[in-house]
Amino acid sequence: MIKVQFSPSSPTSGGSLSSSGRQYDSYDTSDLRVTMTSEDLLQPGHVVKERWKVVRKIGGGGFGEIYEGLDTVTKELVALKLESAKQPKQVLKMEVAVLKKLQGRDHVCRFIGCGRNDRFNYVVMALQGRNLAELRRAQPRGAFSLSTSLRLGLQILRAIESIHDVGFLHRDIKPSNFAMGRLPAAGRKVFMLDFGLARQYVTATGEVRPPRAAAGFRGTVRYASVNAHKNKEMGRHDDLWSLFYMLVEFVNGQLPWRKIKDKEQVGS
Ligand SMILES: Nc1ncnc2c1ncn2[C@@H]1O[C@H](COP(=O)(O)OP(=O)(O)O)[C@@H](O)[C@H]1O
Ligand SMILES: [Mg+2]
User: Is 28 a catalytic residue?
Assistant: First the structure.
């Protein structure tokens, strides 16, 4: 899973991963297996803030690194999301702000804690199960049944409604940013993840913020709306377009532009 941050005028390429593997790119790599390296911010056994013990790495490649951890106080499994303190584009603060605003709503992970040290910023939240990109690919036809797709779609729609309700756009709606619950009680519930690209779309008085003349591209090329490809200011409708593309991919197993890596070609 990779996020793109092209300025409107910048030349685009197919985008190869930088050596750190965490630079901007233009296609979804959430199917790559998670491998731990010595460059990782944490290793198994590390304890964060004398409380959360790292079990293993479960995600990363975008802006953050995600680890499964054990809360030594409550004995429950948690997810730790980290961002290097050295990273130029700091997004975890936004992530924490949105996650906190969404607490108590359906389809949202429970917030457990957050903090920072000289090496990284982190947020701790409830651990969920596998994401919807992995689950779709694990299906025999690489697609969900119509009924599964519709049931997922309805839950995702409600999750999007919740984030819009609190005044934010998600701006990176895609299958790897949703996960199923881990425990049997929530095994059929979808959870929305990753608020790193969220943006407030309302003013303090609750009006929709005036659009900027040109906004840099944010999101993931494969699921981006035509508007987003045109570098227009995004709105609630753009999150819904991404949901629509997700649903087509769920039912069909692919999108017509899945193999095109060039952002300009996908959007034209
Ligand atoms: N709370 C969580 N529980 C379980 N898995 C998670 C959780 N948060 C993230 N993940 C996994 O890590 C992956 C990357 O996390 P995400 O928040 O999307 O970060 P990024 O900014 O790197 O995309 C997700 O696709 C999901 O598989
Ligand atoms: Mg993500």
Answer: no
Task: Calculate ∠ Cα 233-90-168, nearest 5°.
Answer: 40
**Residue matched to tokens 């290793």:** 43
CB 121 within 8 A of CB 82: yes
Q: At CA 5, angle to CA 28 and CA 57, rounded to 5?
A: 45
Report the alpha-carbon distance of residue 1 to residue 211 in Å, rounded: 27
62 within ligand 1 shell (Cβ under 6 A): yes
For the chain, the farthest-separated pair of C-alpha atoms sits apart, in whole angstroms, at 53
Considering the entire predicted model, what is its pTM? 0.88
Q: How, if at all, do strands 168-169 and 199-200 pair?
A: antiparallel
Ligand 1, atom 14, residue with closest C-alpha: 59
Nearest to 218 by CA among 204, 239, 203: 239
Measured by CA distance, the residue closest to atom 26 of ligand 1 is 131
Whether ligand 1 lies within 6 angstroms of the CB of 69 is answered as: no
Residues 90-125: pLDDT tens digits? 999 999 999 999 999 999 999 999 999 999 999 999
Q: Hey, what are 39's tokens?
A: 């460059």
Annotated binding residue 259: no
| Distance of alpha carbon 83 from alpha carbon 155, whole angstroms | 29
Task: State CA 102 to chain mean position distance.
Answer: 15
Both structure tokens of 262: 């060039």
